[in-house]
Design brief:
By secondary structure, this protein is mostly beta strands. The chain has two domains: 155 residues, no CATH class; 70 residues, no CATH class. 0% of the residues lie in helices and 64% in strands. Strands 1, 2, 3, 4, 5, 6, 7 and 8 form an eight-stranded mixed sheet that branches. The radius of gyration is 26 Å and the shape is extended.
């Protein structure tokens, strides 16, 4: 018996699946999924995922002619993963903890055409490719082993972090009576993580974001660390 289950948990039901997708990649649990390293320690894995899909459709018009559409998508994802097989046991199963980063590249192309004989014939094509660092995934698992079977139960949490950064560059020098230090042009860069969440407080939708920045490469400016906490609530919404 191979892996029994994988339970996917997210910070809120609103983010469990977006646009018919989720952070759980189908097929990642297969043959040998319940077999962990046989000894305690920290291990590294590098799963890679490739997905290619296309869809097309056509709709006839009442006045004659048709609208046709086509979409092609190619996605490549690499997921560096650290796994800690702990010495702890829970319910007789071995406890393991893991953290995974996600980096991916997507290519997307779309075509659409409208054809009405004697009236209109027009087509458009769009293409885009993008690289992005996805939200990390933290997991905990329990696995049991016997002579002829291996079983595993795991729970994964998608941590909504994106990376934030800024760069400030003063492009003209100080001037006027107060410019006793000359031009004194300032510069500073910063980078740091951010967290965001949307939830309901009763019937009121609330948006919260938390950002942290570590500054570096400062010139003629203070260099430090900064944090932002923003809470947003609607004061008036039409129809409510």
């Amino acid at each position: 018996m191979s892996g029994l289950a994988l339970l996917a948990l997210t910070g809120g039901s609103a983010f469990a699946a977006e646009g018919g997708t989720s952070f759980y990649l189908l097929g990642q649990r297969g043959q040998g999924a319940a077999i962990r390293p046989p000894v305690e320690g920290v291990f590294f894995a590098l799963p890679n995922y490739v997905f290619s899909a296309s869809v097309s459709g056509s709709q006839a018009l009442d006045i004659g002619g048709a609208i046709t559409t086509g979409l092609d998508a190619d996605i490549c994802v690499t997921m560096p993963t650290a796994i800690w097989v702990t010495p702890a046991e829970v319910l007789g199963g071995k406890l393991a903890l893991s953290g995974r980063l996600v980096y991916g590249k997507g290519d997307l192309s779309a075509d659409a055409a409208v054809s009405i004989p004697g009236v209109l014939s027009r087509s458009v094509s769009l293409a885009d490719d993008r690289r992005a660092l996805g939200d990390p995934v933290l997991s905990a698992s329990l696995d049991w082993h016997g002579e002829n079977y291996h079983s595993l139960v795991a729970s994964s949490v998608n941590v909504p972090i994106g990376v934030n950064a800024y760069h400030y560059e003063q492009i003209s020098g100080d001037s006027g009576a107060g410019a006793t230090l000359g031009d004194f042009e300032g510069r500073v860069s910063a980078i740091g993580p951010g967290l965001s969440a949307n939830f309901q407080m009763g019937k009121v939708p609330v948006a919260v974001s938390l950002r942290y920045f570590h500054e570096f490469n400062a010139q003629n400016r203070l260099e430090g660390d900064a944090g932002w906490l923003t809470v947003s609530i609607p004061l008036w919404v039409p129809g409510r």
